[in-house]
Design brief:
The structure holds two protein chains of two kinds.
Chain A: H1 6-28, H2 37-55, H3 57-63, H4 66-91, H5 98-101, H6 118-145, H7 150-158
Helix pairs in contact in A: 1-2, 2-3, 2-6, 4-6
Chain B: H1 2-20, H2 24-44, H3 48-70, H4 83-106, H5 122-134, H6 139-147, H7 149-170, H8 173-179
The chains are: A mainly alpha, B mainly alpha.
Chain lengths: 159, 183
């Protein structure tokens, strides 16, 4: 899969930035407007899927290498659990919202920095969902497209 | 409620076409129509969070399905249905339909949630004290990440485990390393 035509590539190179930014917006304002970590993460994964469809699989893999994606996936899951454990240490029980309940941050409703640990959890879930959905789509497309495993290996040996 | 029932009818018709058609691409498009209709239904029910998630996941799944359909050689379903399977599925659907009639007689009418009438129920407590207890203006975020954060942790674990399984089963890198000493 070498990618699509010039028209698709040009439009995709502009639109991918907007989609990525919209995903980040959905994630970081998830505690005051509709949205949240899961939806924003899926939007971020969608921007990479657009890259993969328009420019080919190799370009997307150069942008976000698979080891980095799996590390981001694991880091997001670990950090989300870490938020819960820090709540256990400082607040007395698992998943307690210690930043809000102990007034460690200025918290006023509808502000960007408010609600204690909820935006943090949103960000970590967003990282996790984005990286993991990118991974699963990448693996699925590899499985569907390269059904002849013998020929690419031989080409690499010749090079 | 007129728009709601129109959309519901649209979704049901699309589901019938998706099951009955023999062209794989039209079946996938009908599945997409069901998904987008479902996200509009969530909007009419005033659940914008679920609507956003539904439409986003639907787009991503539709892209994968269409790509998998186009790359196939045979895009038509051929062959007749088996008589025994058809009879069994019709009987099962009829039994579920009868059970559904009995169940729907007992639940309250559409649009009147049961827990809204009980003053000390969980949902009423979340609505009345959610803002002062968590500080989040979006009550859905305060429920899924503060009151019910265990559920979200379990959900994240399910996603994590399924992705580990998919990448381990479908990857090809380990096979190459096994093949290298022979070549």
């Amino acid at each position: 899969m070498k990618g699509m035509t010039v028209v698709v590539k040009t439009i995709a190179s502009w639109v991918k930035i907007l989609i990525f930014l919209f995903g980040i917006y959905i994630i970081i304002t998830g505690h005051r407007t509709p949205g949240g970590g899961f939806a924003g993460g899926v939007i971020i994964a969608g921007s990479y899927v657009l890259l993969m469809l328009a420019f080919g699989r190799q370009f997307a893999e150069e942008n976000l290498p698979l080891p980095l994606a799996s590390r981001l996936d694991c880091a997001g899951a670990l950090l989300f659990a870490l938020v819960a454990i820090v709540g256990l240490v400082f607040g007395g029980s698992f998943f307690v919202n210690f930043l809000y309940q102990q007034q460690l941050l200025p918290s006023k409703a509808f502000q960007l920095i408010s609600a204690g640990t909820i935006p943090l959890s949103n960000i970590f879930i967003g990282i996790k969902v984005g990286a993991s959905l990118f991974l699963v789509i990448f693996t699925l497309s590899v499985c569907c497209k390269d059904f002849k495993p013998a020929t690419p290996a031989k080409e690499k040996e010749q090079n | 409620m007129f728009e709601f029932y129109t959309l519901l009818l649209f979704c049901i018709i699309a589901a019938f076409i998706a099951v009955e058609t023999r062209n794989l691409l039209s079946a996938v498009i009908c599945v997409g129509a069901i998904g987008f209709g479902g996200s509009l239904l969530f909007l009419f029910l005033r659940a914008p969070d679920i609507a956003i998630t539904q439409i986003v996941v639907e787009v991503l799944g539709l892209v994968i399905l269409i790509r998998a359909t186009i790359s196939r050689d045979i895009t038509f379903i051929s062959g007749d249905r088996e008589f025994f399977g058809t009879v069994v599925s019709v009987v099962i659907i009829f039994v579920i339909f009868l059970a559904g009639i009995i169940v729907f007689k007992t639940i309250p009418p559409f649009g009147t949630p049961v827990f809204a009438q009980v003053p000390d129920s969980a949902s009423q407590t979340y609505i009345s004290t959610g803002l002062e207890k968590t500080g989040a203006a979006n009550l859905v975020a305060s429920v899924i990440l503060d009151f019910r954060a265990y559920d979200t942790l379990g959900e994240a674990t399910v996603l994590f485990t399924s992705i580990i399984g998919a990448t381990v089963i479908l990857r090809r890198r380990a096979k190459k390393k096994l093949e290298e000493p022979d070549a």
